[in-house]
Amino acid sequence: MDGKLAVRRHNLTKRWLMKIIDEREKNLDDKPYRNIQELEDYGENTQSSLLYLTLEILGIKDLHADHAASHIGKAQGIVTCLRATPYHGSRRRVFLPMDVCVLHGVSQEDFLRKSQDKNVRDVVYDVASQAHLHLKHARSFHKSVPVKAFPAFLQTVALEDYLKKIQKVDFDIFHPSLQQKNALLPLSLYIQSWRKRY
């Protein structure tokens, strides 16, 4: 289905589509995020915008659902950045927020060398903690969000799974177990869906 047809058929807000496009164009220059706020903005303008569009397609116009979508999108943006760090590092790129790296005395070279030093893990801990906070905030709206919106938010199951896995390996972002799929994830998604939770 072409974009214009989808916008007309589902009466979608063009602004969300434009935010996604604009943000992706901004990131074509492959610069690291200057701070955690820039990374959150990326998540808001891409992932949250997709969630706002999904809510519109589901016919949901609800302030609490929008707030939850905002936080879930930010968490998704942060987790995506973390998950992609080994891949980007293999291509000599680091996108983790520079302010957090500077705070812990970590250079891009530390990530390129796949350092497992405590200060590198502290950077990962700080960034992952921000994603966890956004998930917690999103779930705080659980009782106020229409149940009809829950399927749009099931990605929280995969986000939480990754954050638990990275915690188990003491925030070693290069640990091989982080690149393995969780065979039980589909079951977890089913259970959360059945329990009407996100």
How would you describe the overall organization of this protein?
The chain has nine helices and no strands. With 198 residues, it is an all-alpha fold. Helix 2 (14-26) runs antiparallel to helix 3 (36-57), helix 4 (63-90) runs antiparallel to helix 7 and helix 4 (63-90) packs across helix 8 (155-168). The protein is globular and about 50 Å long. The model has no long low-confidence stretch (mean pLDDT 93). It comes from Vicugna pacos. InterPro entries: Isoprenoid_synthase_dom_sf (IPR008949), Squ/phyt_synthse (IPR002060).
Summarize the structure.
The chain is built from 9 helices and no strands. It is mainly α.
Give the tags.
single chain; 198 residues; mainly alpha; Farnesyl Diphosphate Synthase; 9 helices
Q: What is the fourth-level CATH superfamily?
A: Farnesyl Diphosphate Synthase
CATH topology: Farnesyl Diphosphate Synthase
> CATH class, anyone?
Mainly Alpha
Beta-strand share of residues: under 5%
Question: DSSP helix count?
Answer: 9
Please provide the ordered H/E string of secondary-structure elements. HHHHHHHHH
**Which spans of ≥5 residues are poorly predicted at pLDDT below 50?**
none
